[in-house]
Design a protein that fits this description.
The structure is a homodimer of 477-residue chains.
Chain A: H1 2-18, H2 32-39, H3 42-53, H4 60-72, H5 80-95, E1 99-112, E2 116-122, E3 126-128, E4 130-132, E5 144-151, H6 154-159, H7 161-164, E6 168-171, H8 178-181, H9 183-194, E7 199-203, E8 229-232, H10 234-245, E9 251-256, E10 259-273, E11 278-288, H11 298-317, E12 324-331, H12 339-347, E13 355-360, E14 368-374, H13 377-388, E15 397-400, H14 409-412, E16 418-423, H15 428-431, H16 444-463
Parallel strand pairs in A: 5-6, 6-7, 7-8, 11-12, 11-13, 13-16, 14-15
Antiparallel strand pairs in A: 1-10, 2-3, 2-9, 4-8, 5-9, 10-12, 14-16
Helix pairs in contact in A: 1-13, 3-16, 4-11, 4-16, 11-16
Family (chains A, B): Belongs to the peptidase M28 family.
InterPro entries (chains A, B): CPQ, Peptidase_M28
Subcellular location (chains A, B): Endoplasmic reticulum; Golgi apparatus; Lysosome; Secreted
Chain lengths: 477, 477
């Protein structure tokens, strides 16, 4: 214990030297012993990879994911589908021989969509493809029939605030990136209500569309009227913009039955491979088990759940028991704002010091390229060494972010190191939160590689002679 | 007249020499005078291109197409929308100063979709995205609730004929190419009815899907029960296949209000630039003005109509009057089997000898690469020389097919030479017959280039000293 602490301190001290002013690592100076120790896992990692890619686990992640999404379909927070899927994953994890399998209760939102439609009435009749946004209120049963004001930005809305009263505000914001454009989904209704809008529609947040609607969360601000809000397709947003620019008066009849019912009890699913030496120290691998209520939630985040389940099942199958515990968590109600993860953080706050490293896959399980890392400079040096072990699947790339993951951001955004799966996910936002989030977005070979990567990284970090260092980037700037 | 005939004969004789056994042209031996004559059009073509790409016509094709699709939306055969759009194009062609603008009446089908839905009832409830196929009958008002039989091919259906009785047959055929896979759309219902199926669903004919349904024509065979038929998405066809393979019993409730009303009168729209020397000889440029009843028909075939209108309007604007007549035709009811074109062929059968060359754009107006040609070997040599003039827009490629076009195949499939617009259309079938066929599939710069290409090729062929030769490939094999 003492020797390990000394090594850790030394490692951290050396690690600081590696961190340049602009936060780019130019050189890693890790103790040679540690580098050699990490390299010594190569045969084990090769065995994990072989088993997943060409051995007894080949195709299992995809096939199990397929069986799961075919059986349950989508799994929105509050739904019986989600709870059935949670029961299934608890049984499946037990059947895979994992340790301490159980659900941990947490209250989650219960928003239901109901039927919904948007029909352009003027200047001509056209049925618009739409999806209500999460948490939206509904319209009166007869709907809301109103003139439309199309704006490209919040700035334009504010400049035209005088024209918005009584109108349906349509945001035709450009797609810059998901992170930048999603503000229109999250806050569009509130901004429209503030200037007197009676409903708001956003252009779906995506770089590519085949008339594809993309739902997602939105939040009302306190003390602002809650108005119904939905997404329309990129194509229809463009159409409405052009019609407005051509001088037409546009009217839309919006009908939404959406409503929020009382919270219900859901569960985060937990399963472990208990550590042989320090079982109280935990490496977490995770994905979220809930999805939106469209498509089948195969990509978001069935893939993340099944490579996390697959990683533990594979290690168990190979009888690889690391020094520390590897815990898989399938978070519930991620889509409504990390609800399951926040509950977990609260319930496990006394355990936080033992969270050695957190991993989440929630940005696609396409062909892997490596890891996106959040944490300190020395840790990054270690991650780079571990990534070298992934050369057999050509997934050795690493990059850094201030925080990673969705659910695990609660921890990685607060100085606890972790990593996201990094894949060739340039089409992720084509499918995200749409009816096209089905098994067709997934690929068996990629899933095998991701399961291998997930198992390898978790195993090495859980088994190292030292705790993964917590020298936070945040403390150095 | 006589001198021209001699030249034509000579050209044809020389052309034959160019045609090798495997139908590939190795060398073109055209009279030097003719080659020089074609090359002499370079300044004129450059002027057409400059005007369309950077001059007074820049952006006009796109803007006019946008105005058109925004105003009318989709335009299915039999609809008032289509007739309003036809009226509009007649007025627009007149306003552009074109000659002999008029509509020519033809009887067209009047099929209407009505509301429609397909809900998987077992093994779990899922609403399937579908679009009824053209000419389909409807279901009884209460729908058809039946077990499903999924097959990958007609062969598999026949092998399992004993299991099909009373079932909804789902075709999960692979996408090989549009031409090869479309047989399942065209004949799937009849094949299913023959073995006792009560309805049929096909996997949409596309190489890529975001849960995108692709409608289209289908035909019932005489003396076979007409059963309701629709397309579902690639994703849902895959789902049904997997569920069947996993051993589930699948039941679907199909409701379709589709019905065929009596034929109505529509019109092919005709406009000309009358030839200065031989006005009776005609070069046709064309696209079809009808569309399916989903999306806005911007790509299929608004683009084809508007580059054909644009080509004539541009030539008129430049005061370029060729020796022969250039005629634009906007065919009606193409989607129901070239109905407008067949009517036109019958009404103009006495004029066929004067059809010098026919052009149609109905496979997308993406960035142009050149021309796809049907006709004789000498003609191909001439087309290759003309294509060289298109170097300023990098659209000099040519290739041959036994017939080209959709509507004009009536003629090009029967020895009358013609060409299709050839573009970078690898995504054409992503949008084809879907709600995503909107203006977003079109691009202003590409449309400018296509208008220039269309105008240039039509003008040169209409103005050459010789009639375009009719040495048909068909007569040589």
């Amino acid at each position: 214990m003492l020797i390990r602490q000394i090594i850790v301190t030394l490692v951290i001290a050396l690690g600081v030297l590696c961190d340049t002013a602009d936060n780019k690592i130019e050189e890693c100076i890790l103790p040679e012993d540690l580098v050699n120790e990490i390299a010594s896992y190569a045969p084990t990692v090769q065995k994990i990879i072989n088993t997943s890619i060409n051995g007894s686990f080949k195709g299992i992640t995809y096939n199990e994911l397929a069986y799961f999404v075919d059986k349950f379909g989508n799994r929105i927070s509050g739904s019986q589908n989600l709870e059935d899927a949670i029961d299934f994953m608890i049984k499946k994890s037990s059947a895979s021989g994992l340790d301490n399998v159980h659900g941990e209760e947490v209250k989650v939102p219960h928003w239901i969509r109901g039927s919904e439609s948007a029909t352009m009435i003027e200047p001509r009749t056209k049925s618009l493809t739409l999806l209500g946004l999460g948490n939206s209120v509904g319209t009166p049963p007869e709907g809301i029939l109103a003139e439309v004001l199309v704006v490209k930005s919040f700035d334009e809305l504010n400049a035209k605030a005088g024209q918005a009263k009584g109108k349906i505000v349509v945001y035709n914001q450009d797609y810059i990136s998901y992170g930048q454009s999603v503000a229109y989904r999250g806050q569009g209704a509130t901004a429209a209500a503030k200037v007197g809008g009676v409903a708001s529609l956003i252009r779906s947040i995506t770089p590519f569309s085949l008339n594809t609607p993309h739902t997602g969360m939105q939040s009302y601000k306190d003390n602002v009227t809650k108005i119904p809000t939905a997404c329309i397709t990129v194509e229809d947003a463009h159409l409405l913009q052009r019609l407005q620019d051509e001088g037409y008066t546009i009217k839309i009849l919006l009908k939404m039955e959406a409503q929020t019912l009382p919270d219900v009890t859901s569960r985060n699913v937990v399963a472990e491979i208990e550590g042989s030496k320090q079982p109280e120290k935990v490496v977490i691998v995770s994905g979220h088990i809930d999805s939106w209520d469209v498509g089948d939630g195969a990509m978001d985040d069935g893939g993340g759940v099944f490579i996390s389940w697959g990683a533990l099942a594979l290690l168990k199958n190979l009888n690889l028991k690391p020094k520390r515990t590897i815990r898989s968590v399938f978070w519930t109600a991620e889509e409504f704002g990390y609800v399951g993860a926040f509950g977990y953080a609260q319930q496990h706050q006394n355990e936080t010091d033992n969270f050695v490293f957190l991993m989440e896959s929630d940005i696609g399980t396409f062909n892997p390229v490596g890891l996106e890392y959040a944490g300190g400079a020395t840790g990054y040096c270690i991650v780079q060494e571990i990534a070298k072990l992934l050369a057999p699947i050509n997934a050795t790339k690493t990059r850094q972010s201030p925080s990673v993951g969705s659910d695990i951001e609660i921890w990685t955004g607060n100085g606890i190191p972790g990593a996201s799966l990094d894949t060739e996910n340039d089409k992720y936002f084509w499918y995200h939160h749409t009816p096209a989030d089905t098994l067709d977005a997934e690929d068996s070979v990629s899933l095998d590689k991701n399961t291998a990567l997930w198992a390898s990284v978790a195993y090495v970090i859980a088994d190292l002679s030292i705790d993964f260092p917590r020298d936070s980037l945040k403390t150095k700037h």
